Automatic annotation (TrEMBL):
The keyword Transmembrane helix applies. The chain crosses the membrane at residues 12-34, 41-61, 88-109. Pfam families: DUF1467. This is Predicted secreted protein. It comes from the Bacteria. Keywords: Membrane, Transmembrane, Transmembrane helix.
Length: 111
């Protein structure tokens, strides 16, 4: 799965299609399980996605200093290869799982 995500992340259009497909699938499942409106589901998914983005961002980051190639004029602690497309895909996958888990647990909380 990791290699498939790396391959998909080489193309911006493939990355956007993958993110869109996972997001739509998560929203359809979430709306189908609980009688949640589309607007509420989108708002909840948006919040979950951004929280998960901040959780996923630090994974696998190597600084320029650690990689041994510091670009002149840049901060040595800056990422050497941030891999943002891969992180966007991973964020979407994790967000879909957390969103649907949240949708399942909301009735238990009485919400």
């Amino acid at each position: 799965m990791v290699n498939a995500i790396r391959l998909i992340a080489t193309s911006t259009s493939a990355t956007l299609i993958m993110i869109g497909a996972i997001t739509i699938a998560a929203l359809i499942v979430g709306i189908g399980v609980l009688d949640m409106g589309i607007t509420g589901a989108l708002a909840l998914y948006f919040v979950v996605w951004w929280i998960m983005l901040f959780a996923v961002l630090p994974f696998g980051v190597r600084s320029q200093l650690e990689s041994g190639e510091v670009v002149a004029g840049s901060e040595p602690g800056a990422p050497a290869a941030p891999a943002l497309r891969q992180k966007a895909i991973w964020t979407t996958i994790v967000s879909a799982l957390v969103f649907n888990l949240t949708i399942l647990l909301l009735p238990l909380a009485g919400l």
